[in-house]
Fold these 3 entries.
Entry 1:
Amino acid sequence: MSTPELLHCVAIPAGDRNDVFDRQSIRMVILHNIIIRGINSVLYYSGQVEPGTSSYKSFLTYCNEVIVYLHKHHLFEEERYFPFLESHLGAGAMSGNVDEHEAFKEPLAAFETLLNDLRSDKATWNVETFRKSIYDFANLLKAHLSEEIDTLRPAVLKAKITREQFDAFEYESKKYFIANTSLVKDPQFLFINGDGVNGAWFPPMPGPISFVTKALLWHLHSDWWQFGSCDKNMQVKPEFAAYEPPNEQCQLNSILSSAYVLAVIIRGINSMLYYSGQVEPGTPSYESFLNYSKEVLVNLHKHHLLEEERIFPFLESHLGAGTMSGNLDEHEAFKGPLAIFESLLSDLRSHNTTWDVETFRKSILDFANPFKVHLTEEIDTIRPVVLKAKIAREQLDEFEIELKKYFAATSSLLKDPQLLFVNGDGVNGAWFPHIPGPVSFVVKTVLWYPHSDWWQFGCCDRSLRIKPEFAAYEPTKE
């Protein structure tokens, strides 16, 4: 039996998925890559099943779900999406896409006939025949999935469609999907062929529903979902990793994670500065605010301890001794004023000193100003171009696995994720922190309440949505 030739996913377009124009091509690539992963998984696992077994029957049913999803996707395009676009871009603007749909309909129908015959035992299993039937339509489909994206580029759409028109269409589309989605099948299929790196936000689904689909409803057809390209948390399986998409923005997870962690710290400082003017000594909210302020500092110290004991030594072992010394020197520069603020905060919490908002804020700014300079400058030392020159992707991947273990062993589910949520970035970093859906659900519901009086002082709500009073200080994207 030959080794199947799998298909490469389509590159993720650059842009901001929260912008309705950028989102069209970004989301379409996410959807197209789900189809490609579905096809890849069918090709791969066709060599792992044996006729007459329960897994064989489950595999064929899974194959049918791949085809069902493909048809649903194209039905939505042809009946709703393309007509909407043509109503603004002009008649025939999407005709090339429709023609490409027609080009692979016949070989796709031939594969569906074969699949139905196999499921009803009217045909005898032959893995090479099965794979050839897939390739007959898949190669044409893959070309279409790549080419269609150029018809959805932001520049094309902005020329003829207003933001308000797109927002209205998106609203109607959301109602359509809610009405036509099966919670027993559809989200599960999207999870096991999804993109946990570039598209962790898709499918857009409230946490409680995601939890139910992954925990309770998963088991109804778990024998099907084992054949996906990913696990239920959209983590791609090793056998499919080589076919994952490049990102047109060419950013590595390591720099993204570091930037988001630093932004969490800045938001924590901003929230202390702002809410220090909203509390009154002797009230419960005052005590809660001081406890929250302590958690901001705990997070800061944890971050720098991780850098100094693990991240910087790893980087210097590849980039060269001393390459991180500038960052360490900057850590030393603000340690003195930071210690003074910690002493003040400790005295306030133990009622050994009197509250004065101006003194409190001045003590914060004394360390925060040199600290902010450091946070900005540190990013240049971990730019992708710097890392790629000396560190292999495999080495970074191994280090990230070790960091994941470290965080799992040292994190408190009662405090750490909550602080990251209330000072996180729902626009640029909705995927951070990396927490499985069920755990995230428990953290935001059950475990939120032991210290909910603290978390009210964050820059965001628990869903990483920035509060209006802090919106002007949010980051721009490079």
Note: DSSP finds 18 helices and no strands in the chain.
Entry 2:
Amino acid sequence: MAARGIPPPQLPNSRLQKLFRHLSPSPSLKQSLRRTSLSLFATTKTSLDALYLSADACPPLKSVCGGVLAIWDTVERMKSSKKVAEALALRCFEILNEVAAPVMNQSDLSPAVKQKLSKFTDLLNDIKISLDSIQGQKWSRRFKHLNRNQDLLRVHEKRLNEAYQDLSSVVALQTHLAVKSRSKQSVVEFNRTNTALQLTNVALQQIASTTAQTEHRVEAQSRQTAAEFMQTGAKLERVSTTTLQTQLLVEASSRQAADQFEKTQNLFQQVTITHAATNANVEAASQQMDARMQRIVGYPPSYNHNSK
């Protein structure tokens, strides 16, 4: 009762009064708890705003987020029954947070899930109307109907829990069906991938076989080329040897020809010298005969060798 703002009853026994005062929270503790509650409330409001902004791809879920935000704004302005109202708003957020992830992970919502989300949005609107009604009451009326207002909020909390059970079961069913469908798709994808891998393995084996055959052909061609290269090298070596021998023969022939030419030149020189000596001897003999003929005959010679 103390938590509702009603003063504690006057207990006749002093011991019970001391015990009641001992169990009642101190003002500092109350203030600390209140600050903690406000901090938690503000943090949750930030998360709710972020969830509302991220629900654009799912209009039914965005409507639920909008309903919870509307309740939240009304609770922040309330003066009476605030703790019960805050607990109710937190419960709305908890339910929203529970169903948001599985709903947003589904690409296509079933009609049953859409219907349950619509009913849950209607319930949130009813709660919003009740909160606005309590907020709009005058102070005297709120004080007079305090218990009734709190009972009404607890009834709404019960309705929330029932709606959550109904909604969560449908969402869980669709999640199960979606997981089952994804499992089937995964099996189909796995089989398709496995078939592709088998085909790839066959292709790789064919490539390996072709590569081995190519390597054998290249190796045989390399050996043949090496043999031909060695044969060509041997031929070139024989040609080189023959060329060297021919060069040596040509050089020997050239030397012989040079020696023969030198001998011929020397012989020609000797013949020339001999011929010149013979001509000199012949001329001398002719002159001697002319001289004899002049002495014997006494007339000049009719033949002059010099004139010739």
Note: The two ends are 182 Å apart (CA to CA).
Entry 3:
Amino acid sequence: MTFRLQSQMTMLTMRCRVLQNELLEGQQQQEAAAKELVLLEHILQQQKQGEQIAVQRLQAAQSQAADAASKVANSMRQVEGLSRAQGDLAARNDLVQRTLGPLQQEMDKISMLLLGVHDSGHAAGDHSFL
């Protein structure tokens, strides 16, 4: 019976050692996993902060793009309005110039006639047209 008890003791001792080694290894793995988890949680926090900064930058860029688009649209309206006004002014100036041409020609004719009358009257000594 002593042999049997010794054999059982040896087996139990071996099993306990194996289990103690397995427990120690498991605890070491758990500790390493806990350290890695802390590191990964820290990295995750940094990434979340980076994401928030990127979102804020994106929103600022979108706001700037909207402001720029608004300014472009406003400038386009001003250009179109001024272009129409310039066209209207060009048309009005052309009309005035076309109206002025014949009037100037008529004035030139009358001026020539007056010069002719003045010269013929001046030669005859008549100054009544002056």
Note: The two ends are 166 Å apart (CA to CA).
